[in-house]
Design brief:
Blueprint: E1 12-18, H1 33-50, E2 60-61, H2 67-74, E3 80-81, E4 98-103
Parallel strand pairs: 2-3
Antiparallel strand pairs: 1-4
């Protein structure tokens, strides 16, 4: 997968900013930031599964505006969260872009 790169130590996976798109690149849920966050979290979960990790290996998550989706995906784990307001994202009608860094146990690679 071209979305993945490992750090120097090989223990981390960096997933670049993702938007809520389907397999054909069409934006989903154009006016619903929580639904976009859910779709992105599902993509992140699939990417992490591909490298032998899961959402439990992610130390931070999307901002509080998407807390509902965050609790659904990450449970009651306390995660750091940050939101940066922007005028717009590059992808038209995208309301949120999420990136994560996950720790991947070396025995799972």
């Amino acid at each position: 997968m071209d979305l993945l790169s490992r750090g120097e130590g090989g223990d981390y996976v960096f997933v670049s900013g993702l938007t809520a798109t389907d397999e054909n690149g069409n934006l989903l849920h154009k006016e619903d930031i929580v639904a976009q966050a859910r779709a992105i979290c599902r993509k992140i979960e699939g990417i992490l599964r591909h490298v032998g990790a899961g959402l439990n290996r992610v130390p931070d998550a999307p901002y509080k505006e998407t807390a509902e989706a965050r609790w659904e995906m990450f449970g009651d784990r306390f995660l750091t969260a940050m939101g940066i307001p922007v005028q717009s994202l590059i992808r038209k009608d995208a309301l949120i872009e999420i990136k994560v860094v996950a720790n991947v146990p070396s025995d799972r690679r």
